Amino acid sequence: MKNIKTYIIYKISLIIMVCFFVGCDLDVVNKFYNDFESLKEEDYQVKGWLPNELCFNSLTNLYHRSNLDLNTFMLRFNLPPNDIALFKSLLSETDISFKKPHRICIPKWWDDKVDNFKKFEYKKNGYVYYYAIDDLNGIIYSWGGWQVNL
What we know:
By secondary structure, the protein is an alpha+beta fold. The chain has one domain (27-147). The protein has helices spanning 2-23, 36-41, 81-89, and strands at residues 28-35, 60-67, 72-78, 92-94, 118-124, 127-134, 139-147. The protein has a seven-stranded antiparallel beta sheet. The N and C termini lie far apart (63 Å).
């Protein structure tokens, strides 16, 4: 009788733990957008992952991963050289190192050499957005979303 109770308690505990750990990553969202038009169709700008001022019509290949509970994200997208120059002019240069957002696994589309690229930041409405720009390939990497005191 005691073995049956122990077995049942063990099984229930195991089920609760599995549900808890599996459920922890259900708030992570992965998206891909071909171009600016597909962003507009989903009203992407309203969600705040990429501020309106930094959302160019020439934007392509936007990869997005976010943790909805923590309001953190990672992005990668392409811009042509002339728009990269304009994009940079809207940012402040920074010497920050990349810090992986909490509870977001590094996606395959993220370059592990992101710390070798020149980094910038953009602050708006209490949030900070970080950017690492690969000028050679026209790729912009972004992470952030943490609340900051401005």
